[in-house]
Structure formats: C-alpha cells, structure tokens
Automatic annotation (TrEMBL):
Family to which this protein belongs: Belongs to the cysteine synthase/cystathionine beta-synthase family.
Name by which UniProt lists this protein: Cysteine synthase
InterPro entries tied to this protein: Cys_synth (IPR005856), Cys_Synth/Cystath_Beta-Synth (IPR050214), CysM (IPR005858), P-phosphate_BS (IPR001216), TrpB-like_PALP (IPR001926), TrpB-like_PALP_sf (IPR036052)
Keyword field: Amino-acid biosynthesis, Cysteine biosynthesis, Pyridoxal phosphate, Transferase
Signal peptide (UniProt feature, chain positions): none
Pathway stated in the Swiss-Prot or TrEMBL entry: Amino-acid biosynthesis; L-cysteine biosynthesis; L-cysteine from L-serine: step 2/2
Recorded name of the encoding gene: cysM
C-alpha cells in the first residue's frame, strides 16, 4: 500500500464564509465574503504551493539534484515553505532575509534546518535579493528566484485557482489578494479569467509609509518579472492601521488567526462587500498569526 507523504497535503485548503465581519449592509446587498485559509498548508502559508512547485519542477527538468545547495531571498513565508520543502526533498537551504523580520519566522526556518543570512534592515528585501544573487554568482548555490520563476504562479494556476472555482461553484465575482512576489494573484487571475473574464481581480499594496509583512510596492528596478499588470483590474492601497485592525478583528470576530497581510486584503474585501451587490468575494488568508506574535499586532 502506498501511503500519502507530506507533499500530498499541500493545497486543497478550506474556503469558509465570514459570518460577522461583513455586517448587515453586505447581507442586505446580497454579498458574500469567503476566506481561503492557506494557513492550513503543512508549513502554514500559501507559499507552500510555489515552494514545492519550484523545487519539484526544477528536479524534473534536471536543473537541481538532491544534495544541492539552494539560496533564496525571502521576507518570511516563502523561506519557511522552502525550508520545509528542502527538508522533505533533501537539499541544503540558505535563506537571505532582512534582520528585522519576526523572530518566529527565523526560528521556524532554522527548525527546518535552513541556514540564515541576515541583511541590514535599511536595505529591505531589495538588498536581500542582491545578496542572494551575489552568493549565486560566487558559486555558493542555486537561486530558485521566486520573483522571476514561472513555476511560482503556475502552482496557483494549477492549484489555488481551480480550487476556488470549484469551491464557489463558479460563482466567484471578485478575487482579492495581497501583492508581494505576486505569484498568487498572477496564477489565480490567469485561471479565473479563462473561466470567466468578468471576474474582477483586486490586488492590495501598502499605502505610503505602511510596513506590512507580505505586501510590497516594489521599485521599478525590482518589480517581479512574473508580474503582469494587465491581469489586475483594480489596485487598492492598504494602510498599516487598517491591516492591523482587521487582523485582530478576524481573530476576535471570526476565529481566523492570520497574519497582517491577510488582514490587509480582508479589509479591502469587507469594504467591497459594503459597496457591491450580489457579489461573491474571495480573499486569500495567506498564513497563520502565530508567526507574528512578537510584532505586537496582537494584544499581550
């Protein structure tokens, strides 16, 4: 008998209806807000999907072989997911990340056996990406490059998008997602638009001055190569306070313990539910809240 392995449980995450947050106005307008709970993946985030996809597809092409060293720049979730996937598949994993990321993220990566290279916080993810590239050029390992690797959005085109379509019975009208590497929104948008071009794709980026883990507004020189602006119908700016408040409300009012980028996207989804009529709005809940406890977003 062949038993399932851990990688068999990446994906197929729950889609649940919010009962309290949308409020009575949304109900009067016939709107439904649904949360795709990606924290239910084995390593706790939506990034499990592209991490496994990038490693297994690179293996299949013969680009990497077990025992190789992999290098990746990350702000957290992709690094955790890659560390898990590398442990499962037999790779040495070096993760390059800004030093100001939460201690829970760093500890989780190390628990999976990854090695960390911390870069000065002032340089942000841009510096982390530069350092990873330099390490690759020095021959210290292979960079999978989530920002330019088509295997990233492909995981969502083949997995997340079809799941949402099936779970809503094809009734989805709006898809809301934070934008970081943009792999999730690119892959899901491509699939959903093929099914129904009328579906609106809403991307969330940080408002001026906001520092929201997992949501980025990239300088032009660092814009992810996988990003295609034409796949996003509407871009919404998310304020720090709105993201953090919604993150706390999701836990208190819906029992959904999630990270700050999820709160940012959900704040947009709930607002849309006050404005639209007869809409089925799906928002990605990227990860779990336990990796943000030290940030102070949740009351002690």
């Amino acid at each position: 008998m062949n038993y399932p392995t851990l990688e068999d449980y990446v994906g197929r995450t729950p889609l649940v209806q919010l009962k309290r947050l949308p409020g009575s106005l949304a109900a009067e307008r016939g709107n439904v807000v649904l949360a795709k709970l990606e924290g239910n993946n084995p390593a706790g985030s939506v990034k499990d999907r592209p991490a496994l996809s990038m490693i297994m597809r690179a293996e299949a092409r013969g680009d990497i072989h077990r025992g190789d060293t992999l290098i990746e720049a990350t702000s957290g979730n992709t690094g955790i997911a890659l560390a898990m996937a590398a442990a499962m598949r037999g790779y040495r994993m070096i993760l390059v990340m800004p030093e100001n990321q939460s201690i829970e993220r760093r500890q989780t990566m190390k628990a999976f056996g990854a090695e960390l290279v911390l870069t000065p916080r002032e340089g942000g993810m841009e510096l982390a990406r530069d350092v990873a590239t330099r390490m690759r050029d020095e021959g210290r390992g292979r960079v999978l490059d989530q920002f330019a690797n088509s295997d990233n959005p492909l995981a969502h085109y083949e997995g997340t998008g079809p799941e949402i379509w099936e779970q809503t019975g094809g009734r989805i009208t709006h898809f809301v997602s934070s934008m970081g590497t943009t792999g999730t929104i690119m892959g899901v948008a491509r699939f959903l638009k093929e099914k129904n071009p009328a579906i609106r794709i809403v991307g969330c980026q940080p408002a001026e001055g906001a520092q929201i883990p997992g949501i980025r507004k990239w300088p032009e020189a660092y814009m992810p190569a996988i990003f295609e602006s034409g796949r996003v119908d509407l871009t919404e700016n998310v304020a720090q306070a709105a993201a953090e408040d919604m993150t706390r409300r999701m836990a208190r009012e819906e029992g959904i313990f999630a990270g700050i980028s999820s709160g940012g996207a959900m704040s947009v989804a709930v607002r849309l539910a006050q404005e639209l009529r007869d809409a089925v709005i799906v928002s990605i809940v990227c990860d779990r809240g336990d990796r943000y406890l030290s940030t102070g977003v949740f009351p002690a």
